[in-house]
Amino acid sequence: MVISSLSAHPCFKTLDPEACRDLDRQCTWLKTPAGAWVAGHGESDRDVYFVLTGRLRVTLQGARQDLVTSDIEAGSFFGELSALEGVPNSLSAFAVHNSTLVRMPSSLFLATMFNHRPFGEAVVARLVVRNRTMTRQVAEAAHINEDGLAPVGPTPGRHGQIRFDIRAHACRIGANPRRARQWS
């Protein structure tokens, strides 16, 4: 199956066909074989990549080795944070399977996000899901107890080190009794 329009991507389902055709002409279409680098790997772009088919692996390049951060399936995207922040992307991506992607310039992504509200809402909804997933993963990695507090005592694997005792310090945190005021 050959996909030739962004309208096949879930984020663009609400855009009218003419708007999608206009975006199609302004983007770069990429067919990437498995094992090939798609983005990053020494580059400094701020473009947003929409995955139409295939699967990618996103990595953070380290001094000694690359750290795999996530796999991205068809119907997802990456690079949006760089476009929103206006800074080069620090992540790299390579194709796990043969993939079809659309590379959208950051300026076009931002204009589309703010001019087509349903598209902007779809992007924000995906960001919220990613944020919740990462928050859950961080909590699991930090070994959060059922009561929501980190365990007290020696840090596993680091003999003699003590974690921050949140139970002892929680009583020191108080809410400001003043309420927020409306201002204009």
Q: Approximately how much beta-strand content do the residues carry? A: 15-25%
Largest sheet: 4 strands, antiparallel
Count every helix, treating DSSP H or I runs of 4 or more residues as helices: 5
- Strand segment tally: 8
CATH superfamily of one domain: Jelly Rolls
Helix content: 25-40%
CATH class of one domain: Mainly Beta
Instruction: Report the CATH topology name of one domain.
Output: Jelly Rolls
- In the predicted model, the low-confidence regions spanning at least 5 consecutive residues are 157-184
Structural class: alpha+beta
N-to-C series of helices and strands: HEEEEEEHEEHHH
Q: What best-fitting shape do the alpha-carbon axes yield?
A: globular
Residue-averaged pLDDT: 78
What is the CA-CA span between the terminal residues? 54 Å
Rg, alpha carbons = 21 Å
* Order of strands, widest sheet: 1-8-3-6
Please name the CATH architecture of one domain.
Sandwich
Task: Explain briefly what this protein structure is.
This protein has 184 residues and is of the alpha+beta class.
Structure description:
The strands form two sheets. A four-stranded antiparallel β-sheet has the order 1-8-3-6. The chain has a four-stranded antiparallel β-sheet with strand order 2-7-4-5, with no helix packed on it. It is globular. The protein has a domain of about 100 residues: Jelly Rolls (Sandwich). It has about 180 residues and is α+β, with helices and mostly antiparallel strands. Helix content is about 30%, strand content about 25%. Helix 3 packs across helix 4.
